Amino acid sequence: MAGERYDVALIGGGIIGSAVAMGLAQRGARVVVADIDLSGRLSSSEKNAGGVRATWWQPVNIALCRASIRYYESIRTEVGFRQKGYLWLYDEATWPQALAHLELQRSLGHRIETLSAAEVNRRVPEIDRLDDIAGATFSPDDGLINPNLLKEHYRRIARAHGAVFLDQVFVDAAAVEADEVRLECWQAESALSDAELARLMTEDDRGAAARGQLIELRATAVAITTGAWSDNVLRLFGLRNYSESVRRQICIVDNRATNFAPYGMIVDTSGLYFHNEGTHILAGYSPPDTPPGHHFEYDGEPFFLNEIWPRMYARMSCCERLRHVGGWAGLYELSPDRSAIIGRAAPRVFEAHSFSGRGAMQSYGAGQALAELITTGAYRDFEASALGRERFETGALAPEELHI
Ligand SMILES: Cc1cc2nc3c(=O)[nH]c(=O)nc-3n(C[C@H](O)[C@H](O)[C@H](O)COP(=O)(O)OP(=O)(O)OC[C@H]3O[C@@H](n4cnc5c(N)ncnc54)[C@H](O)[C@@H]3O)c2cc1C
């Protein structure tokens, strides 16, 4: 690889790096993507709940998600896009906030209905405990996607346009020069263990973590697409990290007594979200007091018993006999205002990370936007200038709802 020079080197090949690679390669750029684990065992893209929606608070987030949804519609079979909507239940405290954003969401073309508690019950008869529901929204163009298939789709198109994906390659040092960026990397001889991966990407003292063949990558520009691990790469460029990584857990629950297959994502007033997943239910809940950090332990049965089951049973009497099947934990990458950080970070250095739980659903729009910026110097069809890192200095924040 030494001596080869690319137009753009991407660090991180999760769903975002893959989407940016596709956008760049489609525009004729020579692209290389370096990732320490392209299979993404610890990456957020592999831990995702598959929700896709455009019911956000910021025009930029609505627009990027709507552009993504239109694209997912065009490849729906390949990526398992099931446009069954988002049904979102609100209580007295949160309903006014939901109503306050409807006009903006509708003005940007996103269809969204409001429902009374009785209408919720008619639409989803399983939801039969309605006392605290002040209202609900249903957005029929939203839905569920298979994030792994989507990532593979981006990679397939990127490769077809000449992009190169390097696996087991860790980017260890960087130098930005007058006419190019040089990345010092090493390629591991075999796959690293989860513990080695976590240590490499989070600790200053990388210890005796495996090293392999040294590689130098040279490119005109570099893009940082390292998700919840971005701190380890931002510091190579002397860039401030504004975000923090927080564990999020998902339960897989036996669904024999119920059938949620006709519905898309359902979000309860309690913060619980769930949807049908094959013969099971995928259910998530994020305790608001979860401390930041790169933690991956799944709490298992106690998480199901303490957080998931009580919320499901409190809303639906048919969920009395739910059974815990399994689950996992992954990382959210939370920016201070809960919107992604996309743009030019420094001369020759670009970034797209900190998607704050929105990375899969926004990946197409974000990937195209960054590709436009890198290849033409400006946003054109995909506008994301509100998401540049400079907003944390100027105060022009893009505050967004976080589904915790
Ligand atoms: C439980 C859970 C549920 C979620 N649900 C949803 C949802 O329903 N809808 C939605 O849109 N989003 C959801 N998200 C968020 C979404 O998964 C993320 O926003 C998205 O996956 C981020 O993708 P990424 O490519 O930026 O990061 P990642 O997928 O984490 O990829 C980053 C890559 O960078 C690599 N890397 C890091 N450092 C280096 C280095 N120095 N050298 C080489 N490689 C490096 C890593 O190996 C990794 O592959 C969820 C997240 C979690 C954890």
Strand content is 25-35%
Largest sheet: 8 strands, mixed
Distance between the termini: 43 Å
Oligomer: single chain
CATH class of the largest domain: Alpha Beta
DSSP strand count: 18
CATH superfamily of the largest domain: FAD/NAD(P)-binding domain
| Shape estimate | globular
Poorly predicted runs of 5 or more residues: none
The overall pLDDT average reads: 95
Cα radius of gyration in angstroms: 21 Å
Query: Which percent bin holds the helix content?
Result: 25-40%
Please work out how many helical segments DSSP would assign. Answer: 12
* CATH fold node name of the largest domain: FAD/NAD(P)-binding domain
Tally of discrete structural domains:
2
- SSE sequence, one letter per element: EHEEHHEHHEHEEHEEEHEHEEEEHEEEHH
Which architecture name of the largest domain does CATH use?
3-Layer(bba) Sandwich
Bound molecules: flavin-adenine dinucleotide
Main structural class: alpha/beta
Overview of the molecule:
By secondary structure, this protein is of the alpha/beta class. It folds into 2 domains: 5-47 and 148-242 and 336-394, FAD/NAD(P)-binding domain; 84-143 and 245-334, D-Amino Acid Oxidase, subunit A, domain 2 (D-Amino Acid Oxidase, Chain A, domain 2). It is built from 12 helices and 18 strands. It has helices at 15-26, 59-74, 76-79, 95-100, 102-107, 117-123, 147-160, 194-202, 231-234, 301-315, 359-376, 391-394, and strands at 5-11, 31-34, 51-52, 86-90, 113-115, 135-139, 143-144, 164-166, 169-176, 181-187, 213-224, 244-254, 265-267, 273-277, 280-285, 323-334, 341-346, 349-353. The strands form 3 sheets. Strands 1, 2, 8, 9, 10, 11, 17 and 18 form an 8-stranded mixed β-sheet that branches. Strands 5-6-4-13-14-15-12-16 form an 8-stranded mixed β-sheet. A two-stranded antiparallel ribbon has the order 3-7. Helix 1 runs parallel beside helix 7, helix 1 (15-26) packs parallel to helix 11 (359-376) and helix 2 (59-74) crosses helix 11 (359-376). It is globular. The relative contact order is 0.20. The model has no long low-confidence stretch (mean pLDDT 95). Bound molecules: flavin-adenine dinucleotide. Flavin-adenine dinucleotide binds at residues 11-17, 34-37, 40, 43-45, 47-51, 170-171, 201, 225-229, 232-233, 248, 250, 284, 330-332, 353, 355, 357-361.
